[in-house]
Design brief:
This protein is an alpha/beta fold. It has 15 helices and 12 strands. The longest helix has 54 residues, at 210-263. The structure holds adenosine-5'-triphosphate. Its main location: membrane.
């Protein structure tokens, strides 16, 4: 954990302006403090000597007002800067992960922690700690230089005692680093575990094991609590230690000034300025110590976030250096050349030495469970990178076994991923006229009609605007599949990949869906993994995968009808 990580300014250039503005505010406020010390001592001297107090009092009031205005302005700028930094880091992370193939993306626990609490934790680091650090590099110099002019012995005392503060701050910082890292690991475990529990809740409830998770979450939370308390203990102790050191140093200056005043070797004005100014030399460094503790979590999070933001570059370099990966032709050509795929280096390959050339039309992929059919679709979609060989494919639209349905309206679920505007389609055959308000809605109704869902949606309150819960809550498995197929019919990608698209459909619904798939295959390359003989009968090409030697899969047959 470095006190200052210049990668933040490099990777998120947008933060430079707010940090510079906050630093300028800090330095200006330091300069005003020096001026206030002079005005205050002039006022006291005037009172003691019975001189007119109007001018110094006016100056003092003006300086106090300016400092109050600056403090308010700095709060506003720092709140804005903090929010801007975390928002930009979050979107940079999501963009970077979106560009990566699935197997290079971080695991969901890490991703959730970094993009939520991680990015938020950087706020105090960027908005408070960094400006304070830069202010602390400038303001003590200003205070010491002024002291040297007004009263050089006081300046010497400050110069000799000031370095003790950073030395102690570094020693305490080392202890904080370990405890902060421990707290961060505990937080990642807590959120990861919580995510797993939420995901598996239906299964846990089904097996009567949900109650047990309460104890597990409690135990992980307890670990997080004790790690947080350890960090807070160090933070409070270190602040107290730095305060004590600074107070002793200021007391030394005050005692020496007092003695010299009593001996008559120093004027009252110079003595007052020395006593008022010397705390200003220590104050910014003490504040750095305090801010460091509130920003320590952010510094660790920032380190992890920047490592993730820099990783995609490394991945791109790997691709350019000749590793076999997917290439994207302009034509709708789909080729798989000598492909091997392993989920992890230590695991046996799932696919091995697979070579395919897929022509326009419907290709049906069959094979026993676990043979690697879904893996093949993910390779064709570019979500996975082959460990050996090449995949050449145009942009693809993938319908997975359990399609994702966003929370929102039926319209949003059907048009997810559809181009804007939706390409015009022939709706003359559509009997559905209710609720048609625009060309986009007409296309949505037509897509729903093709999968036999138009009647169901029209009967819903709000029809296309009917709300759907999280991940399509409220839809049956078959309706979810039909919405995904309707979505596929609106997409324009030249390659359509369907993983068991009609597994949950029977009778008429399956027949309608098969007809739609065959229709899609008239214009594009459609690859469907299925166990249904009805869909196989419609296929132009058939690819059968079989495990041959051990766990690896080889292509057993490619039959052209
Ligand atoms: N994330 C993963 N990590 C490790 N192994 C995996 C992972 N996902 C799948 N596998 C393994 O890869 C093999 C192929 O899985 P895949 O889902 O491609 O099979 P499939 O032919 O589509 O099966 P099904 O017909 O049951 O859907 C299986 O043995 C599976 O256990």
């Amino acid at each position: 954990m470095k006190p200052f990580d210049p990668r933040l300014l490099r990777t998120v250039p947008a933060v430079r302006a707010p940090i510079a503005a906050l630093t300028a505010v800090g330095v200006l406020s330091g300069a005003l403090t020096v001026a206030t010390a002079f005005a205050l001592s002039a006022l006291v001297v005037a009172v003691v000597e019975g001189a007119p107090v109007g001018t110094p009092a006016l100056w003092l009031a003006a300086l106090f007002a300016a400092r109050a205005l600056l403090a308010a302005g700095s709060d506003i700028v720092s709140a804005w800067a903090g929010a801007a930094v975390s928002t930009r880091l979050r979107s940079a992370l999501l963009r970077a992960w979106g560009r990566l193939p699935a197997e290079r993306r971080p695991d969901p626990d890490t991703a959730v922690t970094l993009a939520t609490s991680g990015a938020t934790a950087v706020e105090p680091y960027a908005a408070r700690y960094l400006p304070t650090l830069l202010t602390a590099a400038l303001v003590p110099g200003l205070a010491i230089a002024t002291l040297a002019v007004v009263d050089w012995p006081s300046a010497v005392i400050v110069v000799l005692t000031l370095p003790l503060l950073p030395v102690f701050a570094v020693l305490i910082g080392k202890a904080t680093q370990t405890s902060t890292e421990r707290r961060w690991v505990a937080l990642a475990q807590l959120s990861g575990h919580f995510l797993d529990v939420v995901r598996g809740l239906p299964t846990l409830v089904g097996y009567g094991r949900a109650g047990h998770q309460v104890g597990v979450v409690k135990e992980v939370s307890e670990r997080h609590r004790s790690a947080t308390m350890a960090t807070l203990r160090i933070a409070f102790l270190s602040s107290a230690a730095l305060e004590l050191l600074a107070s002793i140093s200021v007391a030394i200056v005050a005692v020496v000034v007092g003695l010299r005043l009593s001996w008559g070797t120093m004027s009252l004005g110079a003595g007052l300025v020395a006593i008022l100014l010397s705390p200003e030399a220590y104050w910014p460094i003490r504040r750095v110590g305090a801010e460091f503790h509130s920003a320590a979590g952010g510094a660790v999070a920032l380190d992890a976030i920047l490592a993730h933001l820099e990783a995609p570059n490394a991945a791109c370099e790997g691709a350019l250096s000749g590793a076999p990966v997917r290439s994207t032709p302009n034509a709708a050509l789909v080729e798989v050349e000598g492909v091997e795929y392993r989920y992890a280096a230590e695991l046996a390959p799932v696919l091995r030495d697979l070579t395919l050339r897929l022509a326009p039309g419907l290709t049906v992929v069959t094979g026993p469970s676990g043979v690697g059919k879904s893996t093949l679709l993910e390779l064709l979609a570019g979500l996975r990178t082959p460990t050996r060989g090449t995949v050449t494919a145009p942009a693809a639209h993938l319908v997975t076994q359990r399609p994702f349905i966003p929370a929102g309206t039926v319209r949003a679920a059907v048009t997810l991923g559809a181009p804007r505007p939706i390409p015009s389609i022939d709706v003359s055959a559509s009997p559905m006229s209710r609720g048609m308000t625009s060309t986009r809605d007409e296309a949505v109704w037509e897509a729903l009609r093709r999968v036999g869902l138009d009647g169901v949606v029209a009967a819903l309150p709000g029809s296309l605007d009917a709300p759907l819960g999280d991940d399509g809550f409220g839809l049956s498995a078959g309706q979810r599949q039909r919405i995904a197929l309707a979505r596929a019919s609106l997409c324009t990608e030249p390659l359509v990949l369907l993983d068991e698209p009609t597994a949950h459909l029977d009778g008429d619904a399956a027949e309608q869906a098969h007809a739609l798939i065959a229709e899609l295959a008239e214009r594009r390359v459609v690859v469907a993994v299925t166990h249904r003989p009805e869909l196989l009968r419609l296929a132009d090409h058939h690819v059968h995968l079989e495990p041959v030697h051990g766990p690896a899969t080889e292509l057993r047959a490619e039959v052209r009808r």
